[in-house]
Amino acid sequence: MDPLLLGCPNVAGSGADAELLAAAQVALNRHGDVLRELGRVFADAGHELFLVGGSVRDALLGRLGNDLDFTTDARPEQLQAMLRGWADALWDTGIEFGTIGVGKGDDRLEITTFRADTYDQVSRNPEVRFGDRLEDDLVRRDFTSNAMAVRITADGPGEFHDPLGGLAAVQAKVLDTPAAPEISFGDDPLRMLRAARFVSQLEFTVAPRVVEALVEMAPQLQRISAERVAAELDKLLLGADPVAGIDLMVQTGLGDVVLPEVGGMRMAIDEHHQHKDVYWHSLTVLRQAIDLESDGPDLVLRWAALLHDIGKPSTRRHEADGGVSFHHHEVVGAKMARKRMRALKYSKQMIDDVSQLVYLHLRFHGYADGKGAGRWSDSAVRRYVTDAGPLLPRLHKLVRADCTTRNKRRAARLQAAYDDLEARIAELAAKEDLARVRPDLDGNEIMRLLDIPAGPQVGEAWRYLKELRLDRGPLSHDEAVEELTKWWNARGDQTV
Ligand code: ATP
Ligand code: MG
């Protein structure tokens, strides 16, 4: 083991700091071969190399993955020349910002030339300027916890650089800016959203002066592109404590800029008056949905849980009996989710999935509350499965998570009713191919039987048979032919 990190003069005094550095040492040793080889390449070329930013922070926190960030005095073209022979793969997509991407074994490395940007105070776009000193690079980073560096040499990790108190910040689990937060956020307003993201990801809190600056400067987040905002929101939602990250956004006003519908739920009282408001209900559902995840963090499920009730404030009605209703809030909410996610430039698939889950989240309620038949017909169960399609496992989790009543008996009743629904689905699925509900006759047979050419009438017949299939389950071939013929004759000569 290399003798390195602990040699740092400004951390010698504290046992807790020594412990953190020892943890970092272990994390870095896992990448020892790559670090030594890379250190050799830079030493031979006469350049300096430092592991930096999130990688150093994550090593200290024992959560370093295979993404490693470096900074160097070498310019991008020099980097390309130096690394060409060593890297498994090279990417230059970030070259105008001074970044070269490298694939080596399982590791993905990003190596960025020291930056010493100035900010155009009108457009606030950084003018990329390269620097010569590590300290100038560190001071322009977003948070002190992200502004530490470890020198990498041919012997592996070397001395630890922490001119801005990053180690103390990691120790205290606090996010603070290297300089005054107002200046930092004015230079790049995205940093404000990154604060909320790190609150979720790292479970840190935010320094009081940073909170003040967030409140004051939140509207400036408007200047940031939808793509950059969405990337941070996704990381926030996928973090360890998205509820804390979202609540920081909402409390400081960042949410008003990028996700106003979520803070907007603070106004509406939920129908059972069980919770402070729909906003806290939604955050509880998000937390409960996360608890139900079985296969790692699920971005679609988390988005759907957060947004499932955003239609409530605009559909709230005070009823004559003194109650409150939110009729069709799932329909309105699905539309609102679609609109917001489109504005944030999400993929069509992502938008379709999240809005469909929002749309379906309420349907189960007719099953359990004894208002309907108490138990759905087979047809209703088939429709539930068909409408959810591949989203069904997520819908199960969302609906179960959407029970936040503190009445234990009621909660147990709802979960038992959902168990019952899942059992019904399994029962029907064993009898029928529920995952692929299709009409019992295909388009070619419809054309042959009715003696009609391809066209809208075939589609109409196909949809009729699909509805029948949903209502009655699979029909025999003869039954299907008989039903089709009956429908066609009753339909007469209408044209479509
Ligand atoms: P993760 O990789 O988990 O997303 P990270 O901290 O590595 O977290 P990146 O977005 O990869 O975050 O950025 C790498 C480093 O670059 C950060 O740790 C920080 O030092 C710096 N950085 C990134 N974005 C900014 C920014 N907008 N302003 C200032 N510094 C930034
Ligand atoms: Mg990173």
UniProtKB/TrEMBL annotation:
Keyword field contains Nucleotidyltransferase: yes
Swiss-Prot/TrEMBL keywords: Coiled coil, Magnesium, Metal-binding, Nucleotide-binding, Nucleotidyltransferase, Transferase, tRNA processing
Domain spans labelled HD/PDEase: 274-433
SUPFAM superfamilies tied to this protein: Nucleotidyltransferase, Poly A polymerase C-terminal region-like
A molecular function (GO) term: CCA tRNA nucleotidyltransferase activity
InterPro entries: Bact_CCA-adding_enz_type3_sf, HD/PDEase_dom, HD_domain, HDIG_dom, NT_sf, PolA_pol_head_dom, PolyA_RNA-bd, tRNA_adenylyltransferase
Keyword Metal-binding: yes
Cofactor: Mg(2+)
EC number annotated for this UniProt entry: 2.7.7.72
Any coiled-coil regions, as ranges: 411-438
Classification via NCBIfam families: HDIG, tRNA_CCA_actino
The name this protein goes by in its record: CCA tRNA nucleotidyltransferase
Phylogenetic lineage: Bacteria, Bacillati, Actinomycetota, Actinomycetes, Mycobacteriales
